[in-house]
Design brief:
about 650 residues, 10 strands, alpha/beta, Rossmann fold, 3 domains, disordered C terminus, single chain, four-stranded antiparallel β-sheet, six-stranded mixed β-sheet
Length: about 650
């Protein structure tokens, strides 16, 4: 079957940076299905009811200046004839006490309706936030290993956090505030035209236009400042997490001061950007207040002249003040809404860019579940390159027969670990194909493929939870008895039971509370618990001492019995019993055969074996001398059970 190259994941450029305000429309289009979900009638009802309450609140808001005017006119007796107490209805309506009470009731009703609306809509807003955060989190796991190797964990968490907060801002402000505020400004303008004259409307509209123009210009100026602050914040957070995750390395090299200086440099950049952000905000607020105050003063001066000329009442003077103040609240809010929405778009642009990124590895349409009958694995003319200019595998072809064990050895950079990553479909092959029981792994679902393969990696990373949780991760529905049996087979049950909290012992961040050997045995236990038909062991005993290695090797051989096993080895003593050993060099197979046959060939494998045996014998002699109380006169050779040391040996042998 012909193969095509799979392009790496491509990221859509952030729309906010490219298209300005147009990105807000796209953001709302992306958000709308989560605000108005097709499968949630209860949330739709909340949206509708929130809009109704919002309109009622705006009508209550418009009534407040009128009741204020009527109360003032009633108190001053302007434009009213004396009302006889016998006509109690007219007397009641004209009563300043009633108008004052109505004014208070209007303000209470306005606040009540607004808060009721916010309470009703809260579930809609937070459901949208939760849903999008969930989708982003899931999408992060769908992206390939290449993406995660190129990104830093701290930066990703900040993108997720700021994007989540940005979504909340946009959902609440646009849906609940922006459109209704525009309606309120329109209604207030109509009231001014009806109650006063066109001059008031003209002054008000000029004020609004200048106010919004200044807000737009100032906010656009602040956007770049805000972006630099966000970038500095992400950088500082990334450095902090990276340093804390490497706590032991920092201690090994007494680098606390260097790490603190490195972090402080990032925080210094964040400090400068933050100061500019808050300073620019002060400039924006001052300009908005000055512009509006000039417009407010102009309308009040016109009304004061009208009162003096007898064309307006004192109530009109108070009313125009109340209405302009009433206008200032949504107008000021519109400025804040625009500012916050623009900032929120900046905050979520990376989040949406991440969601727009197409996964490098994805199921083909109509992909079926992998059916494992015997577990035969076949690499057929496989080519692969992380970078087109640097080929890793070049026409690799071999087979792991059902129930057999095949080992892969070779120098550093030969492509050993790449083979396991391709088998797991963490990357797609550049050419050729990989088959399991005759099924191309690109044509089956990733879930079924990975569910059929067990992996014990060289570098084991554990969740910051209990030992039981980490072992059960192999098969979540397993019982406690099955978890403990897997731990026993992995030679870690006795250690766990000696711990004060037993299987509930916390392993710490990345499992740092456990030794390297203990972490490796936990990884072996959870793979045993998974019980897959195919095993991949990427130097599974590299972190263990020689005595424990033999015990674990016996356990692994027991688990591998009857299963197809692919072993990637640096320590050659662990693969002596393999049914076939494949020697890689620069992405090609240079030797293959059993351990005995390869020694007879006296090639690269035999050279690697002899070098490792010599090193082991030298260590044994030095240990014997130390036991007899004689101090060694020279530095012992490096242990060859570490990856780099093995690679040095292999490279020297190859040369």
């Amino acid at each position: 079957m012909a193969s095509t190259n799979t392009p790496p994941e491509t990221e859509t450029p952030p729309q906010a940076a490219a298209d300005g305000g147009a990105s807000l429309v796209r953001t709302l289009v992306n958000l709308w299905p989560h605000i108005w979900p097709g499968d949630r009638a209860d949330l739709k009802w909340r949206v509708v009811w929130s809009l109704v309450l919002l309109l009622l609140a705006k009508l209550a808001t418009l009534s407040v200046p009128f009741t204020f005017k009527w109360a003032i006119d009633a108190l001053t007796g302007a434009d009213t004839a004396p009302v006889q107490p016998s006509n109690w209805l007219l007397w009641l309506i004209a009563s300043p006490l009633l108008m004052t009470a109505t004014y208070g009731a209007g303000r209470i009703l306005m606040a009540l309706l607004t808060q009721w609306r916010d309470g009703i809509f809260a579930k809609v807003a937070m459901h949208a936030v939760r849903r999008l955060a969930y989708l982003t989190f899931v999408h992060m796991h769908e992206l390939s290993l290449r993406f995660h190797l190129e990104r830093r964990t701290g930066g990703l968490t900040r993108v997720l956090e700021r994007g989540r907060l940005g979504i909340e801002v946009i959902v609440r402000m646009v849906i609940l505030q922006l459109v209704p505020t525009i309606v309120e400004v329109t209604l207030l303008t109509a009231v001014l035209l009806w109650q006063f004259d066109w001059r008031y409307v003209l002054v008000t509209l000029i004020t609004v236009v200048i106010y919004m123009w200044f807000t737009y210009v100032a906010t656009e100026w602040r956007i770049d400042i805000r972006r630099r602050m966000n970038d500095s914040d992400t950088e500082a957070n990334t450095k902090a997490i990276d340093s804390l995750l490497n706590y032991e390395t920092v201690k090994y090299f007494s680098a606390e001061a260097r790490e603190a200086t490195r972090y402080d440099r990032s925080m210094e950049r964040y400090e400068r950007a933050s100061v500019k952000t808050y300073t620019s905000l002060a400039v924006l607020n001052i300009g908005q207040n000055v512009i509006f105050t000039i417009g407010l003063t102009a309308t009040m001066l016109m009304c004061a002249i009208g009162v003096r000329n007898g064309t307006n009442t004192v109530g009109d003077f108070v009313m125009i003040n109340a209405m302009m103040i009433q206008l200032y609240q949504p107008l000021n809010f519109m400025g804040m809404v625009y500012r916050e929405i623009k900032q929120a778009v900046i905050d979520i642009e990376k989040m949406f860019g991440m969601l727009a990124r197409s996964p490098e590895v994805k199921d083909v349409p109509g992909a079926k579940a992998l059916v494992v009958s015997s577990g035969r694995v076949q690499f057929d003319d496989v080519h692969f390159a992380y970078d087109p200019e640097r080929k890793i595998l070049q026409g690799l072809s071999f087979e792991v027969p059902a129930g057999k064990t095949v080992a892969i050895v070779g120098p550093s950079g030969a492509g050993k670990s790449t083979i396991s990553r391709l088998l797991f479909r963490l990357y797609e092959v550049s050419g050729g194909r990989i088959l399991i029981d005759g099924q191309d792994i690109r044509e089956v679902t990733q879930r079924s493929l990975r569910g059929s393969i067990g992996m014990v990696p060289q570098d084991t990373v554990l969740f910051n939870d209990t030992i039981r949780y980490n072992i059960r991760y192999g098969r979540w529905e397993a019982t406690d008895a099955e978890v403990e049996e897997a731990a026993r087979l992995a030679q870690i049950d006795a250690f766990i039971r000696r711990s004060p909290q037993g299987y509930e012992t916390e392993v710490g961040e990345r499992g740092l509370k456990l030794s390297g050997g203990e972490k490796q045995r936990v990884a072996i236990a959870r793979t045993i618990l998974k019980g897959p038909p195919i095993l991949v062991l990427d130097e599974a005993t590299s972190a263990l001492d020689s005595h424990t290695e033999r015990e674990i090797q016996d356990a692994l051989e027991g688990v591998s019995r009857g299963r197809t096993s692919l072993v990637i080895a640096h320590r050659l003593s662990t693969i002596v019993g393999a049914d076939e050993i494949i020697v890689l060099d620069r992405g090609r197979i240079v030797e293959r055969g059993t351990h005995a046959a390869l020694l007879v060939k006296d090639g690269l494998y035999a050279s690697m074996w002899n070098r490792q045996r010599e090193a082991e014998q030298a260590r044994e002699r030095l240990a014997q001398v130390a036991d007899e109380g004689e101090a060694p006169n020279r530095r012992p050779p490096k242990a060859t059970d570490e990856d780099d040391d093995d690679d040095d040996v292999v490279t020297a042998a190859a040369e």
